[in-house]
Amino acid sequence: MTPFEIIAQTTQAISSNPNDAEAYKQRALTLCQMQQYEDAMADLNTLIDALHTDDPEIFQLRGTLHMQRGDKTSALNDLRHALDLDPSLMQKLTGEYKTNDKCTPSK
To answer: In this structure, what CATH number is given to the domain that contains residue 80?
Structure first.
């Protein structure tokens, strides 16, 4: 499936169910990979602020995007929260920043 097909599919899912957290997450990841960072950030904000997700991957990705934008305070807050939710992320985060893979959260 192409990124554009994923965007279309997840957008349709969100239109059908505005509370579909998995669709927002998949769309945010795809948008990020397509370097559409502002749109990805909007989906991540929706997941965190409106849908109240506890997914550490979402906080990690938003923290990474904040860092790319130079907002170190917000990045630190999100990354700390991700670590609070999943302490095992510490090693994954260290590796992520060593390889400079800015937009792919650890799995």
So the answer is: 1.25.40.10
| pTM of the predicted protein model | 0.83
Say how far residue 76 (Cα) sits from the centre of its chain: 14
9-33 in b/e burial notation, b at 16+ Cβ within 10 A?
Answer: ebeebbeeeeebbebbbbbbbbbbe
The answer to whether position 105 is within a domain reads no
- Can you read off the two tokens belonging to residue 52? 């109240």
Q: Is residue 88 part of a domain?
A: yes
Rounded to the nearest integer, the mean pLDDT of the chain is 90
Domain count, the chain: 1
CA 38 – CA 24 distance, rounded (Å): 14
Residue type, 81: H
